[in-house]
Structure formats: C-alpha cells, structure tokens
Amino acid sequence: MPKIGDIQLPEFPLLLAPMEDVSDPPFRALCKENGADVVYTEFISSEGLIRDAAKSVMKLDIYEKERPVGIQIFGAEMDSMLEAVDIVERSRPDIIDINFGCPVKKVVSKNAGAGILRDIPLMVKLTEAMVKRTNLPITVKTRLGWDSDSIKIVEVAERLQDVGIKAISIHGRTRVQMYKGDANWEPIAAVKNNPRMHIPVFGNGDVDTPEAAVKMRDDFGLDGAMIGRASIGNPWFFNQVKHYFKTGEHLPPPNMAKRVEAARRHLQMSIDWKGEKLGVFETRRHYTNYFKGIPHFKEYRMKMVTSDEAADVFATFDEVLEKFADYQFA
Ligand SMILES: Cc1cc2nc3c(=O)[nH]c(=O)nc-3n(C[C@H](O)[C@H](O)[C@H](O)COP(=O)(O)O)c2cc1C
Q1: Which residues does ligand 1 sit against, CB inside 6 Å?
Q2: I want to staple 108 with a disulfide (CB 3.0 to 4.6 A). Which of 115, 188, 199, 200 is the partner?
Q3: pTM of the full structure
C-alpha cells in the first residue's frame, strides 16, 4: 500500500487536487468526510508568502479534521521558495507540494508552474534544495511536459525521486494543451513502469467516473488517482468511486436533502473560517454546482448568490428543500 513519507495510505488512494478558489478548508473538509484520502490546498504564491501578503497567508489555514493535508506552493526563485518552505512548515501541514504544472501565462512567464518544464535542471535543483530544507515530505504535481515534442516525464520523475520527493502526481496533459483534448495516461504509466521508481505515482486528469478510476488502477497500474473537477459540487465523488471499487455498483446520486445539507455546512464552515461577510460572498460560487440541472431553479439560485446575510441564504436553502424535496437527480 502506498506511503507518502511516513503517511500510510489505503490501497489506491483518492487525492483531492489542488484547485484555486475551490480547494479551501470548507471544501476540503467536505471531500475528506466523503472519502478523500489526502487533500491539497490551492496553490499559494511563494512571493506572496514571503511578503506576508494577507491573501496568500490565509490560504495556509488548515484544520485537524482534514489530515493528511498538503500545502501547495509555486514559484521559481530559489530564495523565495526556500523561505516559503519555512513559512509553510509553521502551519504544520503533513506534506508540502510543489506546483510544477500550472499552465497560466502569468505563472509560466516567470518560469514557475509548468514554465519550469522548459528548464529541467532548475526544476531538479529547486526541488533538491526544498527537500533538504524541511523534514516534511515534499511531493510534486506536474504535467507530461511543455509540449508534445518535449515529453520527458519518465526521466524527470526519476530525477525528482532521486533528489528526495516522496510522491509525484502527474496531470496527463502538456502545458501547451492547457485543458484541451483528453488526458493521456500512457506516459504516466511509463513513469510507474520505470523499474527504478519506488515512490507512489498518482494519475491526474479526467477521472470523472468511477469507471475511469478503475481504468487508471487496473489498466494503467497507477498508485492512486488525484481528482479535481469531478469533485466540484460533488464532494461525494470520492465515496462513489470507493463504493464502485468495492461492489461494482453505482451509488445513487445524492438527493436534495443531502445537497442542501452540504451547501449549508459549506456556508457555515466558511463563515466560521472567514466571518459572515466573506463567508457568504465566497461560498456563492459553489451553489450552482450543488444544485445543477434542476429546472426552474433560477429564482432560488439568484437569491442564494445575491443575499448578503447568512440568515437569508439559510432560509433559501430551507425553501429549496421544501419545494424540491422529491426532485430526482440523474
Ligand atoms: C478551477 C481549477 C483550479 C485549479 N487550480 C490548481 C492549483 O491551484 N494547483 C494545481 O496544481 N492545479 C490546479 N488545477 C488543476 C487541477 O489540479 C487538475 O490538475 C486538473 O483539473 C486536471 O484534473 P481533473 O480532470 O480531475 O480536473 C486547477 C484546476 C481547476 C479546474
């Protein structure tokens, strides 16, 4: 069974992917309660952290109930990344993850995120120094390569392992692909099949059904799946996959009572974490996902996303539960 450093994981663990503006403490807690084995924070700027930028620092908040939890940082400047490791360590995460996969222009233009895939020696040097800086396990999340002509992930993963990372998660796309096309898991399987690899190799990209997770496990032989988009508005996805692994059958989709309960807890946890004003504001983006596909729902969604008072949003949840109690989700 896979281990990240000393952290023992179950067979074929399911990891919640780092997702900006999504993987915050309330969402991570919901995913954890519903079967995620490891959760990651969204990416946090090393430059922001060393300047004590409030927005970056707030992203370091983690809760006991989420463990094991990884804090993900990005950057390409050696001094900033090392200082960021020291700062992150004080939040006592279980894992520090390095983002070598973010494809957005403003990140890659500074050689950070997937930008570093154009400079493998720097990637290895930075990783080695970060591993040496801390006793916490360092993991890496990356993509297959910069573009389809430069897929050297087998060699890259081995070099990162040799400088001491404890696990690698690989998104089966190149930087140039961004999110287009299908994720290609073949090169990830090639990493796993390299006889020199001994750390866990987690696959990422397009695990959006329990069947896809089975395929990643059985046909590609990977050590676990990192799941992103399929969990948005569906933190139950982790248990849906686990149930399928166990029984070969699908769990029924969560009913309205479960969805309302999740939205309610999400909002309450956000308020407890950030206060009413920010909590109400920042949870708004999640409601569409919890209540997707319900006909004639617009009026209620509008109320949820325009109310400034928590009490009004909670009252709308009650109304929704009453009105749509018997709605059958597909
Ligand atoms: C809204 C959103 C935000 C993301 N933010 C991050 C991030 O902060 N760090 C990171 O490594 N990847 C980030 N990603 C990429 C995901 O972690 C993941 O690699 C990608 O979505 C593919 O997996 P999936 O098909 O399961 O969603 C983000 C993806 C989405 C959709």
Answers
A1: 17-20, 22, 42-43, 72, 99, 101-102, 141, 171, 204-207, 227-230
A2: 115
A3: 0.97
